[in-house]
Write a structure and sequence with these properties.
By secondary structure, the protein is an alpha+beta fold. The chain contains eleven helices and six strands. Strands 3-4-5-2-1-6 form a six-stranded mixed β-sheet, sandwiched between helices. This is Aminoglycoside adenylyltransferase.
Length: about 290
């Protein structure tokens, strides 16, 4: 596996030697979370170029970075060239295990690209294009305190969607039940993140898709969170559903007490009773 220095050298030397590449920025976890580097971290690189169409259309050009296992071009799949809006991304996994997420952006698009990800560092600036650009610190990724409305909406949508999970289980509709549980998980994860933020003065980040949750939850809460992930067994889905209810209730009530928000105890009680009632129904029952 090539070292970090070797990877950075090829990124920078390639840019220095190509007159069409005028500036280079790095963002992503190597900038926002440099103390937790490992072999799986991507190199998130932006090349600002004055010949955008060449780099967006000549896909073999990136072979210079090494032999690949696989390449993904998200924009290529979704848009025509005329719709790229001056931004094109190559996601490359190399045979040595390294990965580069390389974005080509037109010089005219600098402000939009920087605004899209304010955490970054300038690696190269041939023309002073990035002078005056102030990258933000990692605090832009910190969990935000929920507004009263956001909290109330989360509670409402969480408890409402659970009836669909129960229905899917009872009908033996596995994909439907799991997907509905995953919709509920969006609100569960939001409450877990708010709880963590509350406990740390909203000066921490749980990372993309909550990947750092385990760092901030105590053992009991983490074990309960893990139990919200079911197998494909219907009885196991019921258990995960009730674990999600327990965890949501536990954390959301603490948040509501802290910020003097209203937790929907009535909805919680009635929906919990309904879920247990549906679980106890015999299979193939016509009437509830």
């Amino acid at each position: 596996m090539r070292t970090e220095k070797e990877m950075m050298d090829i990124v920078l030397n390639t840019a220095k030697e190509d007159a069409r590449i005028r500036a280079v920025v790095m963002n992503g976890s190597r900038v926002s979370n440099p103390s937790n580097k490992d072999c799986f971290q991507d190199y998130d690189i932006v090349y600002f170029v004055n010949d955008f169409e060449f780099f967006a259309c000549n896909h073999s050009w990136i072979d210079i970075f090494g032999e690949r296992i696989m390449l993904e071009m998200p924009s290529y799949k979704d848009y025509e060239v005329s719709e790229y809006n001056g931004r094109f991304n190559y996601q490359m996994l190399f045979k040595d295990g390294n990965r580069i997420d390389l974005t080509f952006a037109s010089i005219e698009n600098i402000d939009n690209v920087i605004e899209n990800d304010r955490v970054g560092i300038t690696l190269l600036d041939k023309d002073g294009l990035l002078q005056g650009v102030e990258f933000s610190g990692v605090e832009v990724y910190f969990i935000s305190k929920p507004t009263k409305k956001a909290f109330e909406n989360s509670c409402n949508s969480f408890w409402w969607i659970l009836q669909n999970v129960a229905k899917g289980i009872k009908r033996r509709e596995l994909p439907y039940a799991i997907k509905m549980l995953n919709i509920a998980r969006n609100d569960l994860d939001a409450v877990v993140s708010w709880y963590i933020g509350m406990k740390h003065d909203f000066k921490v980040s749980t990372g993309k898709m909550g990947k750092y949750l385990e760092r901030y939850l105590d053992e009991n809460l983490w074990n309960l969170y893990k139990d919200t992930f079911p197998t494909g067994n219907y009885e196991d889905i019921w258990k995960s559903l009730f674990c999600a209810c327990k965890l949501y209730r536990l954390l959301a009530t603490e948040i509501s007490n802290q910020f003097s928000y209203c937790y929907p105890y009535h909805d919680d009680k009635l929906m919990s009773e309904y879920l247990q009632h549906v679980k106890n129904l015999p299979d193939n029952l016509i009437f509830i």
